[in-house]
Amino acid sequence: MILRLAHRATAAATRGGRRDAARACYSTIKYSKVGAVADVSLARPDKFNAMNPTMFAELIDVFRAIEADPGVRAAVLSGEGKHFCSGLDLTQFTVMQPDDATERQRHIIYLRRHIKWLQDAIGAAEACGKPVLAAVHSAAIGGAVFVDHGSTVDVRGCAFRENYANLDGGAVAVRDHSALAAAGCLFWRNAAGRDGGALHVSNRSTLELVGPVDDGGGGGGGGGESAFVQNSASAGSAVYIIDESVMRADGGDGMALRFLSNAAR
């Protein structure tokens, strides 16, 4: 059984070269520029910003345009609506079972080429030559989450849910001299398929978990304890901290981190 993406979008959005993103007409993202800062927002709030083929093509296009624009010095990636992103739009997938070996080979070749294109879109922000800051709120669901190459990420009140990585590393990975600071975050049902852990901290990186944080008004709405629940790894440990890396936890007047029902095979 092969999953084939019902590819309603084409590569036409990226064939035109590095065009001016400010003049582009996008249907699944919004683009604006204030001074030297570009703002890219995932704009399918009715679908919790689920990523369809059109969005993949537009992300490739906009970050290429941002890199080519000498007036842009940094970019911010955010999501509209209740959640940052709910992962792949599964309504764009159809199930196919080729009848013979020749057809199966053709579909495998197609699938490999298409997955490479999807990966290019997912990595468009990383490949951009300008610094990109991700403003993640509420749920970020579906694909693996990587913080690497000296990056620093500060998140509050977010959910890292049902991410999966079938590679060395982890579903939520902090590596290569990077830092992740989290307050009031839920790490739930993330899984790693190979060496590593669902939460993987490596190569002199830092994971800092901060306990209940006041929102400034005394209501405590700025965050709370983080929870690591029902995560798993097929090898290694559910939580993997190696290579002179550090995990710090400061609960203040409460608890910084709660571990429940995690597993490693």
Architecture overview:
There is one protein chain. With 265 residues, this protein is of the alpha/beta class. The chain folds into two domains: 1-139, Alpha-Beta Complex (2-enoyl-CoA Hydratase, Chain A, domain 1); 142-265, no CATH class. It contains four helices and 23 strands. Strands 7-10-14-18-22 form a five-stranded parallel sheet, with no helix packed on it. A hairpin with a 2-residue loop joins strand 2 and strand 3 (37-42). Helix 2 (53-68) packs across helix 3. The longest helix is centred in the middle third of the chain and has 22 residues, at 101-122. The chain is globular, with a radius of gyration of 20 Å. Mean pLDDT is 74; it is low at 1-19 and 213-223.
| Amino-to-carboxy terminus distance | 27 Å
Shape: globular
What is the H/E order? EHEEHEEHHEEEEEEEEEEEEEEEEEE
**Roughly what is the average pLDDT, rounded to an integer?**
74
Under CATH, the homologous superfamily of the largest domain reads 2-enoyl-CoA Hydratase, Chain A, domain 1
Overall structural domain count: 2
The major sheet is characterized as: 5 strands, parallel
Beta-strand percentage? 25-35%
Tell me the CATH architecture of the largest domain: Alpha-Beta Complex
Please write the CATH class name of the largest domain.
Answer: Alpha Beta
Helix fraction?
10-25%
